[in-house]
Amino acid sequence: MWINNVEILKGVEFCAPKNSISVIVGPSGSGKSTFLKSINRIVELNTNVRWQGDILLNGVSLFDMDPVEVRRRIAMVFQTPNPFPHLTVFENVALPAKVNGVAKDKGALRELVKWALEKAMLWDEVKDKLEKHPNVLSGGQRQRLCIARALAMKPEVLLLDEPTANIDVINAKKIEETLRELKNEMTIIMVTHNPNQALRIGDYINVMFDGKMIESGPVGDIVLKTRNELAIKLLSEGW
Ligand SMILES: Nc1ncnc2c1ncn2[C@@H]1O[C@H](COP(=O)(O)OP(=O)(O)OP(=O)(O)O)[C@@H](O)[C@H]1O
């Protein structure tokens, strides 16, 4: 994949098994975020992108689908919590679902918002703040609000780009717990800079270096069997 004629992703082969957490690790600038943003084609929004190859969702090419449909089915949560500041907590979760036609009427929408906030393990903390704006929430709560907003679209795949990078340890643990629960309902692909986190919650580890996926496999295999020196170094020392 090329951005402005510079090759950024180089012959990447990657598979995210259903109902599992696939973690992507690698040094800064290796292409992790670009790869993640390719999976739901948001990388195309502001950049001049040229593709070679294919990305399949349940066997269907993303390039044969409407990009809006792709982004509903493959939702994304970014490193910095980015709730809509001018909308209430309720509206933050409800609006994208409403726009995408996920809930048909007000009752269904209320149910959906509650469901998404419960799944994101945030409901108990915000059920009395639904009409407040996200500035009253902590950073970790704002990030879980963004997860709830993504979940309300009922995605099949959830992409997360370092979702715990900017929050404290307790909230990071809550998000990890949330993801472990969520994988029963969807496929999760997450970028992390934290090797301990990768080993703690990843079912599959994928190591990226210089735009290539240099190692991939079940976490046990990667830890015990990999002979790739860079993968060993990255997973033991971090990056
Ligand atoms: N819109 C863009 N235009 C030009 N180059 C880009 C663009 N987006 C990413 N790149 C380049 O692609 C390469 C990979 O960047 P990317 O952000 O994907 O790496 P990363 O592994 O996620 O890094 P980090 O861990 O620091 O977030 C970098 O060299 C970057 O400069």
Automatic annotation (TrEMBL):
<dbReference type="InterPro" id="IPR017871">
    <property type="entry name" value="ABC_transporter-like_CS"/>
</dbReference>
<dbReference type="GO" id="GO:0016887">
    <property type="term" value="F:ATP hydrolysis activity"/>
</dbReference>
<dbReference type="InterPro" id="IPR005670">
    <property type="entry name" value="PstB-like"/>
</dbReference>
<dbReference type="InterPro" id="IPR027417">
    <property type="entry name" value="P-loop_NTPase"/>
</dbReference>
<dbReference type="GO" id="GO:0016020">
    <property type="term" value="C:membrane"/>
</dbReference>
<dbReference type="Pfam" id="PF00005">
    <property type="entry name" value="ABC_tran"/>
</dbReference>
<dbReference type="GO" id="GO:0035435">
    <property type="term" value="P:phosphate ion transmembrane transport"/>
</dbReference>
<feature type="domain" description="ABC transporter">
    <location>
        <begin position="1"/>
        <end position="235"/>
    </location>
</feature>
<keyword id="KW-0067">ATP-binding</keyword>
<dbReference type="InterPro" id="IPR003593">
    <property type="entry name" value="AAA+_ATPase"/>
</dbReference>
<keyword id="KW-0813">Transport</keyword>
<keyword id="KW-0547">Nucleotide-binding</keyword>
<dbReference type="GO" id="GO:0005315">
    <property type="term" value="F:phosphate transmembrane transporter activity"/>
</dbReference>
<protein>
    <submittedName>
        <fullName>ABC transporter related protein</fullName>
    </submittedName>
</protein>
<dbReference type="InterPro" id="IPR003439">
    <property type="entry name" value="ABC_transporter-like_ATP-bd"/>
</dbReference>
<dbReference type="GO" id="GO:0005524">
    <property type="term" value="F:ATP binding"/>
</dbReference>
